[in-house]
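ok trying again, last paste got cut off:
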Amino acid sequence: MGRIVVDVMLKPEILDPQGQAVARALPRLGFDHFTEVRQGKRFVLTVDGEVTEDDLAQARDAAERLLSNPVIEDVVSVRAEATEATEATEATRATSDPSATSGAPT
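nice, full thing came through this time. structure:
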């Protein structure tokens, strides 16, 4: 099964009270290196089989038409997420092919 991840964020000009509340709480908990927090939404869409370009196109359309409110939100990312099988294949490839992890082009 493939998964598509859609990330939606409030537009920069929209007030984010939840993000502001988190930003105020962070220093009280010892996290004092963060200057701003913006809260967003994440959707995970599952498809049968591997994710295709058609699946991604449909997810982008759904993100624009249903998953976000275009007046106050931006769709910032629509991407295929690696499945456990894909990660296992890549890990096997990396251990059997040293150039796979060296940054060398393949």
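cool. The chain has a mean pLDDT of 87. The chain has three helices and three strands.
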